[in-house]
Model the fold of this input.
Amino acid sequence: MNELPHGTVTFLFTDIEGSTKLWQQFPDAMPAALARHHEILNSAIQAHNGYVFQIIGDGFHAAFTFAPDAANAALDIQHALCHEAWGETGPIRVRMALHSGHAQVSSAKFETGQYATGEYLVLARTARLLSAGHGGQILTSETTAELIREQLSAQASLRDLGIHRVKDFSREQIFQLTAPDLLFDFPPLNTLESLPNNLPPQLTSFVGRERQVSEIKEILTTDDRPHTAEGNSVVGHPPSGAEFRSIVRLLTLTGPGGAGKTRLSLQVAAELSGQFAQGVWFVELAPLSDAELVPQVVATTFGLREPVGRTILELLQDYMRDKTLLIVLDNCEHLIEACARLADALLRAAPHLKILATSREALGIAGETTYAVPSLTLPDSHAQTADALLRFESVRLFVERARAAQPAFAITESNAAAVAEICRRLDGIPLALELAAARVRGLTVEQIAQRLDERFRLLTSGSRTALPHHQTLRATIEWSYALLSEAERALFQQLAVFSGGWTLEAAEQVCASSVAIIGAEGASKSRDQRIAQADVLELMLRLVDKSLIVVEENESAARYRFLDTIWYFALEKLNESGQVVCAQARNRQLEYFVAYVESIDETLRGAEQNRALAALDRDLDNLRAALKWSSESNQVDAELRLASGLWRYWRVRSYFNEGRHWLKDALSHREHASNDVLAKALLGAGSLAYYQSDFPRGRQVLEDSLALFRGLNDKRGIAYCLNLLSQGQVMTGALEDARIALEEALTLFRELGDTRGMNYSLFFLGTMQLAGGKMSEARAAFEECLSYFQSAGDKWWVGNTISQLGWIQNYQGETDKAMQMFREALEISTQFGDTRGTARALLYFGDAESSREAYAAARTNYNEALKLFHEVGDVFWMTVCIEALAHVAARQNNARQSAQLLGVGEKLHEQLRAPIMQPHRERHAWSANRARELLGAQDFGEAWKQGRALTMEQAIELAMREGLPTDTASG
Done:
């Protein structure tokens, strides 16, 4: 028969699991095995009235008019494969997928692959379903399952595998078709839920690009790509003199803005997700403006915190050294040098790491392969019918996006020519096509084509050296901009000041102004336009409708952002408006975020603190931009107000390095600041310094802050400052000074009637008493302030307090109660993203396990706490962890390790000028005595000295080393 099924068609796709490995292991046996495989599949498909319309390698693509025929063919194939004597190769496992949908062909005659001319998404969904399966497994879509459910043989059945996010990011209900004598249990499906990744969900389908996806996957996974003498590999025919080397590890997708580089990289990453043991990870760089923060953004992606004593880059290198990862670095062009340095350093340190970058230009480092992302395929002059046009990717994308904008839209014989003209004029650039498709809400495709033609003529005098695609994209965006009203252009231009998105309230405050509007004709034709605050929402929604702004929903309110390319265009328009207008816009943004941060300060300390923290997280890029602008424009008070308003946020999130950086920058111009603003900034700087055990710096700035507050007669400021000063005094053993400071603070808070302040003082008083070994007094203080924090809904302080209470309970022998406290504290700190709080809870868990003589569990908790304290730079509590591990080592008779760790601890105490706290002294003395007993005095002293000579990195390595209980008592 020579006709392909059409209308409602059920497709059967297959491939051999691990075929590449089989060819490598059995090169002589595989030809015969593959031939037998083909015979089995062809026979069963033909027996059930199916049509093999494409064979790619070992993969079959077959079509059936009736879904039950396809199901029976799949079952027969699997039975035959299971019972075949394969010989040397062993069993050949074939995975299969069934999906049904509408499909048409351009010709009634058999032509390989011609189903792509019809409803291409049916084929794509079948392929994605196949990629989720395992050898020997038959997967079906929900559509096919419903078609075959009532017509299965008595032996066959459908097993519901649930809803899964497949590798085109869509969510599918998947079933497994099974029968007796077939394999039944398989590993989890190869879907995005079962694989480590952070790939963002996509709200639109991935159209076309099958060839590009296949090529990029091959480049990233195939050995022996040709390389030039300079070490850079190429795509295409190898040049003269090229030699073959190892696999490509850095591939950069290049092309103009809007070419679809990001979406293509995400699709490739999704399809390769099963090939990287530690996952595929997406790093969005578009909102970032500070090149120095590139390593920090990558570290945040992996949940790594800021290190102490080394750079973030070194932390990343160590983390990735032994991992098999694919990282997608997206939108590198504005940070090209920083991205190049980072990629080069990581690839040199991590042999199993691969990087897929997207950029408007190559990173320019040795070993890089570049891949120019082409436009979507364009209709030629011969393709004029609707059926013929749908063979081209650009048309399919335009049609699908047009249907999203206007569900009634359809490509017909009457509008086919106009659709083809739009796709050709826009050179198949995805962003340009999407912008044009959005216009079908108000224009016919013929009108869209006419307006595009006018706009292109206007821009023919542009730069002859610019890339044609860049000219085309600019023309498209310029055209979209030209269609806006003057008021819409005014808002579009002003919104460019935001980085990473904005809220309606932010737009209303920042963008309501008189601005110079840059028209399509350029700066020479600009004019002023007043934006009324009441008009901002309506104008912004118009920009959303015209696909120039993306709206995102979150739990509290809608949030808006530009697509990357549109943001750059809007920013260019803002810059063209002149320095005065730009400065005014950035000043308004700075004013807004200063006021916003100050207004949210109280919320950070109350029942809504999680909501406030999440809001600051969302605006972190805006806050960084505002801080940078305030520094560059020498707006000292504004920078100090913003930085001091954020110190509690940085504290809770454990962003100590970043917080101290901005406060240091702001305080470098302190001579120009007002005293009240300066006092608050110094208070925040001192607190963050203490959290990183920088006691001299913390004490200095807090004493400066206290002097300013006293000069201002600000009793509340004095009291808060005294509270914070007492922290460092406790850590450095000045308990009497801490007592005096806290008594004065309590007196001032009582005078003010400030209940919250009094309970903060009570907490610090409890800490002081704990450090001095007065457990009953400390417990009473913590129990009293805990009651207040619970009633006030201040969960972060609840977590801090129950950690301290739990430690006292464990010290007093109530270990079970303490463990419950630590579990709650750990849950709270995890909820807040408080790395330091998490570390402290784990440290205290270790103490409780040690009390129960569960030393292996204690070591595990101590090790994890040590790593986290190291990440955030808290040397004091790192020292406590090291000495706790010395105690475990002594308990396990690993005396040399214990003595060395005690030597490390002694050196760190000296450097910090902080003595061992009273409750830890008995444990410390026991550890030292036990290690000395086991080693003898001379060897013990030598091991102690060895510990003192270690660097911090060596000390951590020693502390985390599993000790062997091989030391015995001397004599």
Notes: Residues 579-600 form the longest helix (22 residues). Residues 213 and 264 are 7 Å apart (CA to CA).
